[in-house]
Amino acid sequence: MLRYSRYIITNLAESTLFIASSLTCLIWLTQSLRFVDLIVNQGLEMLAFTYLTTMLLPSLLGFMLPIALAISVMFTYHKLQADSELIVLRSAGLSRWQLARPALQFSAFIVVIGYIISLYLLPISYRQYKEMQAFAKDNYAAVLLQENVFNSPAPGLTVFIRERHADGTLRGILVHDNRNNAAPMTMLAEQGQLMKTPTGPSFKLINGSRQEINYDNGQLSFLSFDEYVLDMRLFTKQKIDRRKDEKERFLFELIDADEEMDERERAKYLAEFHHRIVWPLQNAVLALFVCMMLLSGQFNRRGNLKRYVVTLVGVGVLLALHIALSNAIIKHPYVAALLYLIPMGVTGAGLFVLLHNQSTSPIPDSPPAEAPAQEGEPS
């Protein structure tokens, strides 16, 4: 590898690593705030919290890589221009393509990393994330029931607790079970305790009453009890019936859709399939676009703010188009063609600009001064 290529790639690697890690950590911290309440108020262990939030990192990193690489290419070539290094390289006879080649070589490496994340790490990590969520709900069901709040741990079930003591005793309990619409049930108890059983968490209620109405015959039944065990089966059933969403599936699983899926679910899987293929390619497309914008035309050591602003806006438009088209595929599957045509068009334009008319010479900082007239020569 030529020395100038190694120099540019080193600068690109350092800046990309810094920008990608900074952006990923920033977004990761904002996403982690959603789970802080599980630690502060609901007793989730710190180790479980760390594992749960760490599983978000591959998806965040995969999303941030094209953005970080585009910013890194802009920053690196701006630095080369500000230090007059681009002027020197062009004066040495390097063409636009030769100047852009290190960035494109590095972007090819980032594309490979992007596909590793998109095709392998993303489905594995997101699957672990969803399973950890179900595990946390199942193992922390007791602390998820907050005091003086109408909790709804499962659809159709409402639980109210007036007090909760440190030993796990619950006082002032109301449980309304409407999961069976034909026979809703309401229970009141002075105290109780939530127990974990092989089938899931169960309520042990003490000194209370059970009321149930049968809408078929209009009969109301009332039962007073000293001790009653209510099998809630909240989370075990959810884990068995839980269907993997599109982010949890590998690429071949997105194509092989389940028979019971409706059309909208199939469309979501199709949109995720195209996104997984095209998004890593944005690393190379955006790097080529930035090189096309910054290396075309004349060089000026004093910089060109307008060109950088236009380049930044162009990067934002390309990213926004990809996201908008990925979402539009759900309602309009034929839009998927544009998801491929736009990167192909940008690639073609970039290659044409970088390979065409490469004999541009640098612009001097100031026009050359006129030579003083010699004595006896007309001025």
Could you describe the 3D structure shown?
The protein is α+β, with helices and mostly antiparallel strands. It folds into two domains: 249 residues, no CATH class; 93 residues, no CATH class. Helices cover 56% and strands 17% of the residues. The protein has a six-stranded antiparallel β-sheet. It is elongated, with a radius of gyration of 31 Å. The protein starts with a helix and ends in a 24-residue tail after the last helix. The C terminus is likely disordered.
List the topology elements:
Blueprint: H1 3-32, H2 36-40, H3 46-54, H4 57-82, H5 85-91, H6 96-139, H7 141-144, E1 150-154, E2 157-164, E3 169-177, E4 185-197, E5 200-214, E6 219-231, H8 235-241, H9 251-255, H10 263-278, H11 282-295, H12 305-328, H13 336-355
Helix pairs in contact: 1-4, 1-6, 3-6, 4-6, 4-11, 4-12, 6-8, 6-11, 10-12, 11-12, 11-13, 12-13
Tally of helical segments: 13
Rounded to an integer in angstroms, the radius of gyration calculated over CA atoms is 31 Å
The poorly predicted ranges are: 234-240, 359-379
User: So what's the overall shape?
Assistant: elongated
Largest sheet: 6 strands, antiparallel
Average pLDDT figure: 81
- Could you state the order of secondary-structure elements as H and E? HHHHHHHEEEEEEHHHHHH
Class from helix and strand fractions: alpha+beta
Number of DSSP strand runs: 6
Strand content: 15-25%
Helix content: 55-70%
Q: How widely separated are the two ends?
A: 54 Å
**Total tally of structural domains:** 2
Q: For the largest sheet, list the strands in their spatial order.
A: 1-2-3-4-5-6
